[in-house]
Design brief:
By secondary structure, this protein is mostly helical. About 85% of the residues lie in helices and about 0% in strands. Helix 1 crosses helix 2. The longest helix has 30 residues.
Length: about 100
């Protein structure tokens, strides 16, 4: 696991989590909740997606290049957004 890629995925996950919270306001976790859920989902989910899509081997072989950064933002952002969205939906269903 590359620490730089993990940080990129966590940051983009936090951004994705806040974007998902802004898009679906009724199931938002709030700014802090969306940020935390997105960062965790982006870091963990980005690593899983990267491995499943074969992006992890390219990262290890090529080092840190623009493709690695873009794939880290894509996988982390999507994973973080989905994590925040799912947790927000679960919260809204349990509260109401």
């Amino acid at each position: 696991m590359d620490l730089t890629a993990l940080l990129i995925q966590a940051i983009s996950g936090a951004i994705g989590g806040n974007a998902a919270g802004a898009a679906v306001k009724e199931s938002s976790l709030g700014t802090l909740g969306n940020t935390i859920a997105g960062a965790l989902g982006g870091g963990i989910g980005g690593q899983v997606l990267g491995s499943l899509l074969g992006l992890g081997t390219a990262t290890a072989a090529s080092g840190l290049d623009i493709g690695t950064i873009i794939s880290g933002f894509a996988t982390g952002g999507v994973s973080g957004g989905l994590t925040a969205l799912v947790l927000g939906l679960i919260k809204s269903k349990m509260m109401g």
